[in-house]
Amino acid sequence: MLPRKDQRSAAVDYVRGLMAFGRRKTMRAMAHSVGTDPRRFQHLLRTSRWDDQLARARLAERALSSRAPEVVVIRTFSTPRAGARLAGTAPRYAPDLGRDVRCQTAIFAYAVGVSWASPLSWRLLPDTGGSDRKSVLDAVGALVRELAVEIERWRFSSVSAVPLLLEDELPIHHRPDHWPTHSRLHWIAKAATDQGRILIGPTAVPENVRWSEPGMGPMSAYFHRVSPTSGENGGGGFLLQVPSSAGSTSAWEFDLPDADTTAVVGLVKTGAMVHREHTWLRGQLGLDAYEGRSRRGWNRHCTLVATARRFQTEIGGAAGF
Q1: Which residue, 69, 277, 283, 291, shows the most beta carbons closer than 10 Å to its own?
Q2: Of 129, 122, 94, whose CA–CA distance to 107 is shortest?
Q3: Do residues 227 and 220 make contact, with C-beta atoms less than 8 angstroms apart?
Q4: How many Å apart are CA 171 and CA 176, to the nearest integer?
């Protein structure tokens, strides 16, 4: 993937710079921390010839060779970024700011286990995604399906048999139940709350499960499963989560034949590991710190961040951290 010695040397220095604690992950700061010229990093990300897509696939293969995931989570992450010329930017609602701002939007796929998560692949919102909310949601839905197809075609592991957890409310024509019928993927998809409540009635078979977070004391949530008696949704149904304390109700639609309610709830809760892992990549390894404008540079930066995280995981595991 990095055929020349100077490329490999620059990549090693870049990864070392990403793992330098207590520093901002700008190119200048990283170059200073490892004692090199930041222009080497700029050349590596922007103009150097190497296949970052192949590197991404190799990283995924390595991550999945040691342990099998419980679920693959596909989720959208947005970072407020100024500048209309930045790749992958569009107006989106920022909960922290309470208003619509211009954000750089990316869709990530993570392999997730009970106590771990590892990035597998990603896509940046296309620049033709449009500026209105409908166009952005359309573009996100198309990229989610593209990532799902990529994962389904992988042959180096059994990950294609692992269910997908989609944490975005997608437009109807981009939802998994509208995907081609030959798809072998099973899924759990975030749904509108009212969509699940419609099925609660004489034609549904309700089932309740209480879930307590390990180590969180009395905190718990109640999950109400709604399974249509007509056998629709491939033996799946809807799952409504109602927090015991004040909070909003969440809903999921799923296509998991012969899965009991506790197993479905367990997959939803396991998928929450993605938030912790993505926060680590942002805060400690500078996932959102790429300063350039190009799509190629962003993808290569993410690839090297994933490389740094894989190095930390394998060395940390070997050292017993």
Answers
A1: 69
A2: 122
A3: no
A4: 10
Confidence of residue 202 (pLDDT cuts 50, 70, 90): very low
38, burial (CB in 10 Å: exposed 0-12, middle 13-18, buried 19+):
middle
What distances in angstroms separate CA 147 from CA 63, 106, 142, 152, 298, one per listed residue? 17, 12, 9, 9, 17
Residue 129 per-residue DSSP state: S
Confidence of residue 212 (pLDDT cuts 50, 70, 90): low
Asked if 80 and 102 count as a contact pair (C-beta separation under 8 A), the reply is yes
d(Cα 224, Cα 156) in Å, to the nearest integer?
37
Instruction: Classify residue 169 as exposed, middle or buried by CB count within 10 Å of its CB (0-12, 13-18, 19+).
Output: middle
Q: Which of 266, 279, 76, 276 is nearest to 188 (CA)?
A: 266
Q: How far is CA 27 from CA 18, 41, 45, 231, in A?
A: 9, 7, 11, 55
Rg for the chain (alpha carbons), in Å?
21
How far from each other are the two terminal CA atoms of the chain, in whole angstroms? 30
> What span, in angstroms and rounded, lies between the C-alpha atoms of 233 and 195?
13
Q: Residue 109: which of 248, 277, 259, 319 has the closest Cα?
A: 277
What pTM was computed for the model? 0.86
What's the pLDDT score for residue 307? 95
Query: What confidence tens digit (pLDDT) does each residue in 106-122 have?
Result: 999 999 988 889 999 99
Length of the chain as a residue count? 321
**DSSP H helices in the chain:** 5-18, 27-34, 38-46, 52-66, 133-153, 193-197, 261-270, 273-285, 295-319
